[in-house]
Each structure stands twice: as C-alpha cells, then as structure tokens.
Amino acid sequence: MKKRKSGNSQKFTIGMKKKLVVLFVLALLAFVGLGVRLILITKNNGEEYEKQVLSQQQYDSTTLPFRRGEILDANGTILAYSEKVYNVILDAKLLLRSDKYLEPTIRALVKEFGLDSGEIRQYLAEHPTSQYYILAKKLPYDEIKNFQDMITPGMEGYDANIQGVWFESSYIRKYPNGSLACDVIGFTSGDNNGMYGLEEYYNNTLSGTMGREYGYLDEDSNLERTTIPATDGDNIITTIDGNLQNIVERHLQEFNDTYANNFREGNGANNVGCIMMDVNTGEILAMASYPKFDLNDPRNKSALIGMPAVDEKGNKVKGESVFDSGVYITEEMLSDFTDEQLYQNYNALWKNFCISDTYEPGSVAKPFTVATGIESGSITGNEVYNCKGFLEVGGWEIKCHNTYGDGAVSVQRGIEISCNVAMMYIAQATGVSTFTKFQKDFGFGLKSNIDLAGEARTEGLTYKASDMTSTDLATNSFGQGFNIDMIEGITGFCALINGGYYYEPHVVKRIVSSSGATIKNVEPRVLRQVISQSTSDKIVEFCNTVVSGPNGTGKTARPAGYMIGGKTGTAQTLPRGNRQYVVSFMGYAPADDPEIAIYVVVDRPNARYQDDAKFATRIVRAVLTEALPYLNYPMTEPLSEKEQAELEELREKMITSAVATTEEGVETTEEGAEETPEETQAEEETTEEETQQSSIWETFDVDSSTGYYIDPNTGDYIDPSSGHAFGGDDLPDFSGENTDSSIFESVENGGN
Question: What is the Cα–Cα distance from 317 to 96, expressed in whole angstroms?
C-alpha cells in the first residue's frame, strides 16, 4: 500500500496573520472614532439636527388644497360654495421631546376643542413615536383661531410650551339653501368630486389645482419655505331663477302633503316633476322633482320613507298584485335593508327624475302629430274626421278616450278634446317614413345633451320606419308605444311653439374665474328648424283651445288672471290592466306669444282613480299663478271674486313667510274640505250653448258626492266635460302583435 505524500496544510502564513490583526485594529479604531463623533454631535448639535429633521418631515412636501368653484343662480344667489376647514393634528414625537411641553399642550387642547385629556394621554402612551394623529376634524377657522395664536410666535397669547400640534386645511362643500334645486346641483363625495347634476357634469370646471409647500433649513438653521399656491376652481352662473325654483318646489311639496298616504301608504305619487324653460333660448328656469333630499345631508334615511323601494339591482320591487304600483319604504323597512339595498335606494332618490326617467308621453304628443301632418303637407289642418269612439287598425279596435264617440271632429277640436281617432287618421295620412323622421327632428329617441349628469338614453325606445307597423303608427299618433323623458318632451314642445326652432337646453349661462373674470358665455344654440312659422302658429292656436275652449281638457291649468295654452296627457303603465297611470300637462304662457314653457308630470298619483290630468293641471295653475306676476307679465283675463281672494291671500303669505305653504291649486268643496279625485265637483261648468253636440253620458245618473256621471254598463265614473271614463282600461294588450312593448316602462292610453 502506497504512502500518501505529506503536504503543507497551513492555510495562512504568520505574515498574513499579522496583517489581519493590524487591519482589525484599524477598523476598530475607526468605529470608535465614529462613535465618539456621534456622541459629540448629539451633545453639542443634537437639537439643531433634530429640528432640521422634524422640519423636513413636516414641511418637505405639504399639499395645499384648492377651493372648489361656486354655483350661483341667475340672480347671483349662491347655491353651492366651499368653506375652508381644519383638522387638528397631533405630533406625539415632537410633543414628548420634553416633559415641559406635555401639560400646557394638553390643557390648551382640552380648553379650546373640548377634547378628552385621558384619551390624549392614552394615545401618547401607546404611540410615543407617532407624528400624525387627527384629534378633531373639519373645524371652521373661528374654532381654531385662539389655538392658532397660541402656537404662532409674535401673536398675543403665544405660548412656547405648546408643542406638537398643527393644523391641516381642506375644504367642505356647503349648500346654504338645503334641498333647493337638489336635482340640478348634485353634491360632492368625501374626496371633493362631484356626484350628480352640475357638480358632476362641470366637475373639471369647478375643480382647481392643488398647490404645494416645500420647507428647508438654511445655513443658520432658519426654516425657509417655497410655496406654489393652489389654483381655485371656476364659478358657474346658472340659468336657474332661485325664486321660480322655490315656487315650483313649494307646490310640489304641497301636492305631496295633500296626497301622501291618501289611497295607499307612501308619498303623494311615485314621482312628480316640473320643468320651466325659456321658449326662445333653451334656458332652464326651474327644474325640480319630488321626493327631494338635503344636499348638506344626502344620506339622511328619512328622505327615503314613502318612496317606491328598489332591490339590490336597482329594479323597483313589485307589489303583491298587478294593481299595486310598488312597495313603499317605511321606517321599519329601512332597518332591514342591506348596504347594497340602501345604496340602490339612495341612487333612486338622488337621480333627477326630469332627465333620467322615461315614460310614454300620451296625449301631450298629439300637437306633434298634427304639426307633422301640416308641415309635411299630408293635411291642411282644416280636415274633419268622424269619431265613433274607436278605430280599427291592424285587426285591433283602438279606442278613443271618449269611448262613446266624439262625432265630427276637426283637427283643432281633436287637440281641444284630445281625440285619439282624429290623431290616428292624421298619422295614416302622414305615413310611417314622414312620421318617424319628424319624431327624430323633434328630438324623440335622441339625447338633448343638456349640461346635467344622468340624462337617460332613449335610443331604441322609439321606432324606426322599417320596424313600425300600422298599429304602431296609430298608437304613436297619440303618444303610446314610444318613450321620452321630460327634458326631451319640453325641448321639442318649445320648438312647436316658438316658430319651429329647436334649441339645445342648458342650465349654465356663464363661467367665471375665482377673480370674477368671464371665461365663457353660453349662448343659445339653435340646432335646427323643425317646422315653419306658419305651422307653429297653427299649433299655438290649437293648443290655446285646450285651456280656453268650451270642451278643453286643460281648463283647470289656467292661472288666475292669465290665459295660457298647452296639452294634457294620461298614461297607462305596463302591464296592461293594472290601472296605474302617469298624468301630465305641457303648457306655455302667454297664450298669444309663448315665452315660458312649463311641463308637469305626476307618476302614479296616490289616489283610487289615477287617470285624471287634473293632478298635473292643478300644479301648473298653482305655479303660474305665482310665477307670471313675479316675471312681470301683465294680466290678460278678468279676475273672479274667488280669484281675487286667492291672490290676496297669496300676497299675504308671501309677505309674512317666504317658505310658508299655500293652498293654491288645491280646490275645496263648499264645506271647505280638500278635493280628491273621488270627491271633486266638476271644476269647469259647461253650458248647453258651449257644448257643440249632445253627449250620451249626459243621460247617465250623476253621483251626488263627486258630480261625475256613472256608466250603467261598467260602473266607471265619467268626466262630464270630456266623457273620459276614470279607471277604465281603454287599450288592448298588443303583446300578441309584433310590437315589443316590454322595452317600455309605461304605456299611454292617450286620454286627456
């Protein structure tokens, strides 16, 4: 066996070991030297360096908030503004540098802000190195001023022993008028971004740019600052007249006060909306709906009570039967809502009914049908049609609102008494292609592009010519089978009565900088001329008879001392036979030269018989009785003794209380009780000389408590002025035909 060679197994030589020892000693001496130097720095200059570090931590990169722009009405009244507020910030590490700072600082915090000294001490004990803790939030300057003086050198009351507290500024949004114009204005989220209405649509305009403050210490350890100031947002001046807005909202509130919990538990209607618009510019003068909410407290649950509930997907909760118009929120229900249900119901409350909800317009569409026929040359406007109470079209018997028949009906009288049959004849003469073309010209099925967030898309809720059957054409002629929203309806109606000019609606008329310089003027914008001046004049002439004519369906809309024109509408909602209705009135003033348009929609009134346009006309009358004198329109009609007393009472209430509720628009019986649809007397008397022909319903028995005739065959109440059967279902169910009615939210019966 071979022997293994022995080798040198030594890894390091003696020389190498000596070198390592020397290197170790040198490194050790270096660390000792650094340690000594740190001790000397801490002893001699520690406070200076600590100040520099702390100053850099607090001031190196501090953001400066911008002020969000104001929203003002047309008269310069502030509707929304931003108020600077302050958070009280505790820097525990800075405060605990010395025991002499602790007690004076805590005493000052307790005295000025009412804080709990025990909670402050506990936090300091548990978080001694914390440098950011919010002690109090969003305090106005008046509440921090005294403490600010205590920590500011040179100010009276300065105390050098108060340390470790500073203020962080921000802005909160304030709405000085509470719920006024809540649908139009919208509100802001916690991060100062706009939600709904003008706040959302003009968010970039109202928002400014954050500033920044940088801090450093110079060679003498003095704190120096470099500041890039924040840029405040621009202000917007709206077309909304705050006084008109207040009038509208007060009467919507009165309507709800009158009919809430009347026939069923819940609000006076599912929704009530009103828009006032300048006919010749497209400016929105007032826009409101009910229910409403407080902009300063938009998540107040009490505002949800009485509304129809929606589920987690935002769909309306259905009632127990087809005759229920929803399930209405109670205080007990609120406690059982999930977070998602609560969120969806808040969304239903916050959205603007006037621009976001769609429905079928009903008989307010009849003037559009007549204008289409005249403008296209399909009719002259002098035709006379025979109404037998129905017309057979496409295998269906489509009834008139007066199922007994109106006899010979001219085009003008067809508008006055709201005859479906006359409209169907006009649509047949016009034809599908022309009819659908003019629908688009009037803006139906198109967004109006109003400068508010949340406008509904109605594309697909109107027919294309290729898809429209003869039955669709017939029912579209009196406002059934297609959907619009309120802003579409009133914008198109203004084009009917102003010479044919379609103006783009808008709510903002000027944008100004925070310094007051005008950045942009929003001028009226004509998009197209839909009809000629002569056709427009005809429509005004016809619509005037709706209010002034002996058989006009809108008599109850006439305000005291004025003559107006317009058109009523009554909508039967889906499913057929549910006896749930949407009623409306589209009108204008003055009657001889329209300048102001008004549109009121009442969605499912809280009443036994909902299909009565008087729910809407009474609101119109109440609003215009106040609004027209305010707008300095001279009276054109003589006042009855009752109207004189009404106006005198109104003046007294306006003087004594700007927010006092009034009873205009709520008729009373001789005994003084408020009228309801079941108890009302005929509000307009029609003499034999005024009646152009005898009516079959005049032979029926009269219900002594209401003044309505009673159909002996059906038991329905009959309006003595129009022959309309309240509570009847005049429309057949077209679901068996090619019409896909499931895409529509509601279907009109075209009556009234």
Answer: 59
